[in-house]
Amino acid sequence: MINLVDLRRQFQSVKKEILQEMNDVIESGQYIMGPKVMELEMKIAKRLGVSEAIAVANGTDALVLTLEAYGIGKGDEVITTPFTFFASAEAISRVGAVPVFADVDPITFNINPNEIERKITPATKAIIPVHIFGQPADMDDINEIAKKYELKVIEDACQAFGASFKDQPVGSLGDVACFSFFPTKNLGTMGDGGIITTCDSALATTIRKLRTHGTTKKYFHDRIGYNSRLDELHAAILLVNLTKIDDWNSKRRVLAERYRKYLNHVTHLKMPVEGKYRTHIYHLFCIESEQREEIMNALINAQIQTGVYYPRCLHLQDVYSFLQYKKGDFPVAEYLSERLFAIPMHPFLTEGEQDKIISILRQDGGR
Ligand SMILES: *Cc1c(COP(=O)(O)O)cnc(C)c1O
């Protein structure tokens, strides 16, 4: 079976270094909020050129703590994309605010700035662009709208560590950004993890407080918080993976180019397109086709794993029926949810495996 991602191969490639790092942690006796977490925060902040990085338990918490730290809650609205993983909107609901969706761009699959502006009301407090599949959103236009209406821009960068817009890394493009270290993300650990990056030190102070039970000083609390820390062992693993991420991302880009080279002319397939000014890191490689079912079946029969990201837009999820959206409200997102499918993409995919995938797709396209 050729898998969409191959975490076994990934961790095998760094096993020695990770075991050494984990051994250090085991020997240290410090398992929560120790030196590895501090080192990871420092290194990620430095890499992104921001002053603050706060490691948390997962990417969803990163969004929730950020929204709460901004004081966003009941009566507030936050604009985001209907074409993303559920957590982007769930975090908004979690703090008591209302997710307001704006349709996406058909080329980059990212939230369309023109659609955002039409959704702004006096209750709007923030915009959450999601750098979907590893491709940055149109951050210039989004930041401009945010400035005009005094809104916060919270990047959901959970799928895009290492991607950039106009040579600026995602995670440094808005007011604050949220990353996930879930194992299948392009920068992941062997469990859950996340990090928030920002240049707003007041915001960072509030988030640090929320992360550990609203603590100002041990056993003194001035607000209700969370227990949302990154474990020392995960920080240790991530410190190793962080040294590999540029290599891994460039391998993804090489594989993406190769897919395009051999599949661009297959009439029934539309390859992903890189928008202007963007460096896409291909967390996922999603192809568009009118014959999705048929093609996916051919791949599965050839022992090639596929996946649909995402089969149901967020405005059409049962849990959001109370928001009273209907089919047709976001035609681009709906169109994509009916046609996109992912094919294997990870730094350890071999050319031989890729050739096999390509040959199946070419046969199908030529039928
Ligand atoms: C994975 C993901 C999240 C949530 O991250 P977790 O670490 O799984 O909580 C949020 N938004 C997007 C776009 C994601 O892909």
Keywords, separated by commas or semicolons:
Aspartate Aminotransferase, domain 2, 367 residues, 12 helices, alpha/beta, binds pyridoxal-5'-phosphate, seven-stranded mixed sheet, Aspartate Aminotransferase, domain 1, 2 domains, three-stranded antiparallel sheet, globular, 41% helix
Q: Can you lay out the helices and strands and say which pair or pack?
A:
Blueprint: H1 7-13, H2 15-28, H3 35-48, E1 52-56, H4 59-69, E2 77-80, H5 87-94, E3 98-101, H6 113-118, E4 124-128, H7 139-149, E5 152-156, E6 164-165, E7 168-169, E8 176-180, E9 194-198, H8 201-211, E10 215-217, E11 220-221, H9 232-263, E12 278-279, E13 285-288, H10 292-301, H11 331-339, E14 340-343, H12 351-366
Parallel strand pairs: 2-3, 2-4, 4-5, 5-8
Antiparallel strand pairs: 1-9, 6-7, 6-12, 8-9, 10-11, 13-14
This protein binds pyridoxal-5'-phosphate.
